[in-house]
UniProtKB/TrEMBL annotation:
InterPro entries per record: Bifunc_Mopterin-bd, MoaB/Mog-like_dom_sf, MobA-like_NTP_Trfase, Nucleotide-diphossugar_trans
Annotated organism of origin: Mesorhizobium prunaredense
Domain MobA-like NTP transferase as annotated: residue spans: 348-507
GO molecular function: kinase activity; nucleotidyltransferase activity
Record Pfam families: NTP_transf_3
Keywords: Kinase, Magnesium, Transferase
Lineage, opening ranks: Bacteria, Pseudomonadati, Pseudomonadota, Alphaproteobacteria, Hyphomicrobiales
Gene3D superfamilies, per the entry: MoaB/Mog-like domain, Spore Coat Polysaccharide Biosynthesis Protein SpsA, Chain A
Protein name: 4-diphosphocytidyl-2C-methyl-D-erythritol kinase
């Protein structure tokens, strides 16, 4: 192929390099010129065009891309029609993508005019997702180059989507004193969601003491009727002879690998029992965030074997994006400078809402004993051990600020308050001081909350060394306020819509400390009846 400026008189059959206007007609880039086109160009006074002139043994870009795609051997993948020298290949099923990297590298080494790009090895894919693309860079290439690529492709399967299989999974959860049933229940929900995305299903669960014998017995039972057994230990593996690996061996199985170079996910255990795979799940697998457990589970569900060498090779790329609950997994939070040092906590008081269920009046301005509700709540926040109180305003911001006049508060305006609770959380957290270890989210419509109640939450937070979420409760029912550690602040920036701290805590699988503060203290007044029943008088 020759490329460059050529006289229009000799341009018939050439491929235009650039879009060209001839009279009222526009010839697009890559258009092959006909005799009529040449006449039109000459009539328009154009004597020269930049174009590609194909040699007799050249293939056009589309023909070359199609021939290469047709020569490939693959599974659960389809090639789309060629366009602009490109053929895209898409998955015909959800599963795990595998690729012969040596074959891809060999093709890309034939000539720079021919390129192929794919997803990463073992990438999870959805049905219909593009997994590879063939691109011919010039308008045409020598057929000999295409033939060379075709010979490489004849060497075997170049890539595949290994479709997920409807596997049956049994779960064991060990129990130690202090483990809440709600944590175990949530783990089941998260696991079921993991399996649902790949077509697997959870068939049975066993809750056992955290002892080798009990776990071994349960594993043997579940292995008989399931394809995979997953064990969630109440205590993380601390030694290769710990409960989970020891139980696999006691049940007659073998430990394939204990520990993996993926973080989060280091403490995973992989074993085999009665021809089935057993996974000792790391603690991070209780969270829906991606971790090393997903890498192993998804491959097994896709029918791929996972060996000790496979896991050993996961280190490159194994440093996954930090999850909000563990922003620095290799570096613990710094300890206080002295035993008497106290972790600093700021209060974020949410006062931006529209009180839509009140039928018009702003509930935050309702009078309780002659005082606006928002001022009553703010005064109690200021009377607590919190270092600063940040009030987030939005709806009727001027009236709310007037009700708070004279108080030593920090204000954060939320112009996007109509978008939902998440916008107010973001606005408030953005104003929390840089040295605060946590932020307590307090609703502005809590007439019964007292400074002492807020102090109890702060004390519990300090006792946990700032590592736990502390949540107010009443008779075991979760409520408000909620005190969030700084490690969660980054996650708040990604919340959308009418989503608050409760959703964040549940989604991230955090360590939660519940503090009983009583029914009257934990109530927020969402309706006219509730407000009036608590002693409030709405103001127009």
């Amino acid at each position: 192929m020759k490329f460059g400026p050529i006289p229009v008189d000799t341009a018939e059959g050439a491929v235009l390099a650039h879009a060209t206007t001839a009279g009222e007609r526009r010839l697009r880039k890559a258009h092959r010129l006909s005799a009529e086109d040449v006449s039109l160009l000459k009539s328009a006074g154009i004597s020269e065009v930049v174009a590609a002139v194909l040699a007799p043994d050249d293939l056009s870009e589309d023909a070359a891309a199609e021939k290469i795609a047709e020569s490939m051997i693959h599974r659960n993948v389809e090639a789309k029609p060629a366009a602009t020298g490109r053929v895209n290949l898409h998955a015909l099923a959800a599963g795990i993508f595998t690729v012969d990297a040596a074959m891809i590298n060999a093709i890309n080494a034939v000539d720079p005019t021919i390129t192929i790009a794919t997803l990463a090895q073992h990438a999870p894919v959805e049905n219909g997702q593009m997994v590879a693309t063939v691109k011919i860079i010039p308008f045409a290439i020598a057929s000999a180059l295409v033939d060379a690529v075709a010979r490489i492709c004849a060497g075997g399967e170049i890539f595949a989507v290994n479709a997920y299989q409807p596997v049956r999974v049994g779960v064991i959860q060990t129990v130690l004193p202090g483990i809440k049933p709600s944590v175990l229940d949530k783990t089941l929900r998260v696991t079921e969601a993991r399996l649902a995305r790949s077509g697997g299903r959870l068939t049975a669960e066993r809750r056992t003491p955290h002892h080798v014998g009990a776990v071994a017995e349960a594993a043997g039972s579940l292995a008989r009727d399931n394809d995979i057994v997953v064990i969630f230990g109440a205590s993380a593996m601390s030694d290769f002879g710990d409960v989970v690996p020891a139980a696999i061996e006691k049940a007659g199985g073998t430990v394939i690998r204990a520990g993996m170079p993926v973080d989060p996910g280091n403490l995973l255990v992989l074993g085999a029992l009665a021809g089935k795979r057993v996974i000792g799940a790391p603690g991070c697998a209780r969270s829906p965030k991606e971790n090393g457990f997903d890498w192993v589970l998804d491959r097994l569900i896709a029918g791929l074997d996972v060996t000790a060498n496979d896991i050993a090779g996961m280190g490159v790329g194994g440093l996954l994006m930090e999850i909000p609950t563990r922003p620095q997994p290799r570096e613990p939070l710094p300890a206080p400078k002295s035993e008497s040092a106290e972790l600093k906590v700021d209060i974020v008081l949410l006062a931006a809402g529209r009180s839509s269920r009140m039928g018009g009046p702003n509930k935050l301005l309702a009078l309780f004993d002659g005082k606006p509700l928002v001022r009553r709540t703010a005064e109690r926040a200021l009377g607590s051990k919190a270092s600063d109180t940040i009030v987030v305003t939005g709806h009727q911001r001027e009236r709310v600020r007037a009700a708070l006049s004279g108080l030593d508060l920090t204000f954060a305006d939320n112009p996007d308050f109509a978008e939902g609770l998440s916008s107010s959380l973001k606005a408030g957290i953005a104003r929390v001081s840089g040295d605060a270890a946590g932020a307590m989210i307090v609703l502005g419509d809590m007439p019964g909350i007292a400074s002492a109640d807020l102090d109890r939450l702060i004390d519990a937070f300090r006792k946990s060394e700032g590592r736990s979420v502390v949540r107010a409760s009443h008779e075991g029912k979760r409520g408000n306020p909620v005190l969030l550690p700084r490690s969660l602040f980054a996650a708040i920036a990604h919340l959308e819509g009418d989503t608050g701290a409760r959703h964040l805590v549940e989604a991230e699988g955090l360590d939660v400390v519940d503090v009983e503060i009583g029914k009257s203290a934990s109530i927020d007044v969402d309706t006219r009846e509730a407000l009036e029943g608590a002693g409030g008088v709405l103001q127009d």
